[in-house]
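As a warm-up, study this chain.
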Amino acid sequence: MNSENGIHEVEEFDSKGYLDMELLRFTTAGSVDDGKSTLIGRLLYDSKSIFEDQMEAIEESSRRRGEEKVNLALLTDGLKAEREQGITIDVAYRYFATPKRKFIIADTPGHIQYTRNMVTGASTANLAIILVDARNGIVEQTHRHTFIASLLQIPHVVVCINKMDLVEYSEKAYEKIVDQFTDFSAKLDTKDVRFIPISALNGDNVVDRSPRMPWYDGPTLLFTLEHVHIGSDYNHIDARFPVQTVVRPQSEEFHDFRGYAGRIAGGIWKKGDRVVHLPSGFATKIASIVDISGEIEEAFAPMSVTLTLEDDIDISRGDMIVRENNMPEEGQDIELMVCWMSETPIQINGKYSVQHTTRETRCVVKDVRYKVDINNLHKLEDQKSLGLNDIGRISIRTTNRLFYDNYRRNRFTGSLIIIDEATNNTVGAGMII
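Now compare it with the structure written out below.
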């Protein structure tokens, strides 16, 4: 598309209602040089999601580097160090849309030392694309990324067996990797796993079906992304509404308005529903539900809305509104699976800050139960410390009660982050067991 016509095309795009379409968040993961950035570049290029001036800049950059073909990986490798080394270091986010769906891509690094970045990019994903080099098969990083995808309860996993052009588009090489991955993933809680043989460099089975692999009769990657069902990925049973802020406009038009704004973490909410405020336990009814378009009759996860209640209750940021007879867990002693993100190892009896939904509190690390060996998933119970990028199970005690669910039941209310009070750096990402 032409950049000078970009504004008009965006307006036309909006007028067709595309901006109201369903949003799919997906992440890419794989070892170094497996072709993650090239795959995303190919996806953007073949789906006509790149402006002409962007393409010209990539072509010029590729020529300066002496490369024979246009290096589509340069579309996502934005840091100077990434372009110099030809790798991804930070999480790169890209946005595009087709007539079927909107997409947010998190291109995550492949190096072991950037595992924490993969956790960051995958934490909100509906789907994970795990790339495997057709020449090398399943490697340690494949195990690591698959385990993290399972740990984060990413509902859908697409294994893209890349560089099929370098194994002469061999069905035997493809089937061997499918068998290897299936054997490993059987030990994990991976709900929906799909396999696609591709060549990101040449565009085989990325957007268009490849004539070079007639033995593969499955969908292309883009077709899979456009049609995978994500409506049931969210918990629409357990009503959870963490309060982010109290809305008091203080205007003549809304003189007496008092609303409670936040992002719905679960359930379906309707005007007139009986609800309970936590921690007070007071019950009331929903008077109205308001979003950016005005008052609506019902709302559900992950919508951001403002609730008004029939009774005046003292509610503030960090509180939670739930439905009667459907309460979350409540407590201060919590068991977590945690990915440690700091070069300073976790300290038993160490004090940290905790952010859980919109609630902030402090905690003490009581114990490290075990560390997980990523390669074989064994529990190393004799290792009582977690270092950078290690994953293990810990127990903490918080100074205030938290209202939470098991992470497998609700990714929003079942997750938290651990923060170093001295530096204010996030040092751990936890999934409540």
